[in-house]
Amino acid sequence: MKTMISTEVIQRLKKQDIRAFDELYSATIKDVYHTVYILASNKQEVDDIVSEIYYQVWKSIHNYNESLPFPHWLNGLVFRQVKNWKRKAWKRMQLFRKKMILETEQFDSIDDDLLKDENKQLLLSLLENMSYKLKEVLVLYYFYEYSQKDIASVLDIPIGTVKSRHHLALKHLRKLYNDFDKGGISVC
């Protein structure tokens, strides 16, 4: 910052004199803008950063220690504001990325749910073409996730019968699915 600001202007600025602010702005805008332009990675945000800098000048001029050169104080403010802006931009980017990930996961979840529902519908329609004894084993095994031992207990049949019905049901399902896949069975 090359431009010198008189102590009189700074004193008036500390008293919230808008004309003093205009004088300060006119005397420093070129240097501030140039510095921010060099430091900012996103050139479209330069005007916003510069506006924030002058807002901070207005707000915090009472913190300026007049024993130090004003350009040093102003440059410190410029560098801090650019750094803060970059940090906020980084946080916004992180939030945006998290939002995109969540939306993607949500859509994937919806797709997975739809796929699961479609698979369940297909399985239910295929079960319609199966005997009750085979159906009950599949329902307990796949929908309720019972072990074969638990199924035997619930249905009050030997575990060997559960195993054979499970095997027979899967064989029957494969045949029905292949028939469905070839267009032989309609689902609905």
TrEMBL record:
InterPro entries with a match to the protein in the record: RNA_pol_sigma-70-like (IPR039425), RNA_pol_sigma-70_dom (IPR014284), RNA_pol_sigma70_r2 (IPR007627), RNA_pol_sigma70_r4_t2 (IPR013249), RNA_pol_sigma_r2 (IPR013325), RNA_pol_sigma_r3/r4-like (IPR013324), WH-like_DNA-bd_sf (IPR036388)
Keywords: Sigma factor, Transcription, Transcription regulation
Name by which UniProt lists this protein: Sigma-70 family RNA polymerase sigma factor
Stretches of the chain forming a coiled coil according to its record: none
CDD domains, per the entry: Sigma70_r4
SUPFAM superfamilies referenced in this protein's UniProt entry, alphabetically: Sigma2 domain of RNA polymerase sigma factors, Sigma3 and sigma4 domains of RNA polymerase sigma factors
RNA polymerase sigma factor 70 region 4 type domain residues: 121-173
